[in-house]
């Protein structure tokens, strides 16, 4: 446990830094430019850097360099990029630093999870997940408390300091071998639209062979691409909309914390279940169908039909619950039907590409037409993804595999 503890401390500190920086980076772009376009552009660059790094750089680097070095380099890179934003006065420079931030951020969790599993076995992975969740909650809490007094620039400096501090336990902790085990799937954090890794899943099948052959239906990949395009469309400009609606920066961090807590509770309930392949597919259908309505709900608050604070609290509660279903169903289907870890890697690619496409479309749409356009477009994409998932669910109706997700 002593060797693992160093890694857990590093994961906690980094997760707190990322929770603060992911929101503050976008808010600082708004402070400098006052433009939704530049806000979404910064998210697009972050997602592009994260996607490239998670799909290419992390695997190449982990084969050629020690995991210990990759993890430390990732933390140093994040610290430099985030702290650099705080001292930049040009929105273009801040946007480019978001790209750098994305590249280095993608290096950290795969190597940390791999190191934890080598040090403590698969039972260590839930501890990494717990350290990450606690770090995010702590980061959101600190930011909510101090956003009003130190501002977003101060928050970026704090985030950079925390990421730099995470290097120390890495230097004094156990040496990490090269190589990355598994392909953790990226997700869109619930307020910012920026990619990050979900908790990695350890799936234990109750059957030695799959009941359905032929791999993951192509409709699952198509639905993933479309759904995550909608996710990025919805969340990338959301900090601007929330500020315009009168929600404070502290309130934005509290929404992020609420969504994380909701998804954590829902995931804890789901992971205790023995899910069949068909049930996991139906879970995806239900979650994506729910997002059709969830993505339209903010318009009730922004349009003055209901108190905006209450509406957004409901939105992020539902976002957290539905994300738990998505982040359970997709990896389990990919693991069981798509060739194990390589199958999750393919889903990872479609998620990453969807986030980039969604951010790319959101930039001009948010600037020209605002929340009505981006919310409606995101809702329509969620509806289209539901159709794809429903077709896949019909094809998998006879699959009886059961497996338990624990993470």
Written description of the protein model:
With 407 residues, the protein is mainly alpha-helical. It has 2 domains: 2-181, Growth Hormone, Chain: A (Up-down Bundle); 196-406, MFS general substrate transporter like domains (Growth Hormone, Chain: A), CATH 1.20.1250.20. Helices cover 77% and strands 4% of the residues. The chain contains 14 helices and 5 strands. The chain has helices at 2-33, 36-64, 67-87, 91-120, 125-165, 167-172, 218-235, 238-244, 249-271, 277-294, 298-302, 308-337, 341-369, 371-395, and strands at 186-187, 196-197, 202-205, 274-276, 402-406. Strands 3-5-4 form a 3-stranded antiparallel β-sheet. Strands 1-2 form a two-stranded antiparallel ribbon. Helix 1 packs across helix 5 (125-165) and helix 3 (67-87) packs across helix 5.
Helix percentage: over 70%
Spatial sequence of strands, sheet with the most strands: 3-5-4
Distance between the termini: 18 Å
Quickly count the domains.
2
Molecular shape: globular
Specify the CATH class of the largest domain: Mainly Alpha
């Amino acid at each position: 446990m002593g060797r693992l503890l160093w890694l857990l401390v590093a994961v906690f500190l980094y997760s707190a830094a990322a929770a603060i920086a992911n929101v503050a980076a976008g808010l600082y772009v708004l402070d400098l430019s006052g433009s939704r376009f530049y806000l979404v552009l910064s998210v697009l660059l972050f997602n592009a850097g994260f996607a490239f790094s998670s799909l290419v750089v992390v695997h190449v680097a982990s084969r050629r360099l020690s995991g210990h070095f990759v993890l430390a380099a990732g933390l140093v890179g994040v610290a430099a990029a985030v702290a650099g934003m705080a001292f930049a006065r040009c929105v273009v420079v801040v946007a480019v630093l978001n790209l750098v931030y994305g590249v280095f951020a993608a290096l950290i969790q795969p190597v940390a999870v791999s190191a934890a599993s080598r040090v403590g076995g698969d039972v260590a992975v839930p501890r990494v997940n717990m350290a990450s969740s606690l770090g995010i909650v702590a980061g959101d809490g600190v930011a909510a408390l101090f956003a009003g007094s130190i501002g977003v620039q101060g928050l970026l400096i704090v985030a950079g300091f925390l990421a730099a501090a995470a290097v120390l336990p890495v230097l004094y902790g156990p040496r990490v071998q090269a190589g990355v085990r598994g392909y953790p799937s990226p997700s869109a954090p619930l307020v910012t639209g920026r990619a990050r890794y979900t908790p990695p899943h350890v799936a234990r099948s109750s059957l030695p062979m799959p009941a359905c052959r032929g791999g993951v239906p192509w409709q699952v990949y198509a639905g993933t691409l479309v759904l995550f395009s909608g996710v990025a469309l919805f969340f990338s400009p959301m900090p601007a909309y929330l500020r315009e609606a009168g929600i404070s920066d502290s309130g934005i961090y509290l929404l992020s914390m609420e969504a994380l807590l909701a998804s954590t509770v829902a995931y804890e309930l789901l992971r205790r279940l023995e899910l069949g392949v068909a049930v996991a597919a139906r879970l995806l259908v239900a979650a994506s169908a729910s997002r059709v309505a969830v993505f339209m709900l903010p318009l009730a608050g922004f349009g003055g039909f209901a108190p905006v604070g209450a509406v957004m609290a409901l939105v992020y509660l539902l976002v957290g619950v539905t994300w738990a279903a998505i982040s359970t169903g997709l990896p389990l289907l990919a693991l069981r039907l798509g060739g194990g870890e390589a199958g999750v890697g393919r889903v990872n690619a479609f998620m990453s590409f969807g986030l980039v496409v969604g951010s790319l479309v959101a930039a001009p749409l948010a600037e020209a037409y605002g929340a009505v356009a981006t919310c409606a477009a995101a809702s329509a994409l969620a509806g289209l993804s539901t159709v794809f998932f429903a077709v896949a669910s019909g094809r998998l109706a006879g699959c009886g595999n059961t497996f338990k997700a624990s993470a």
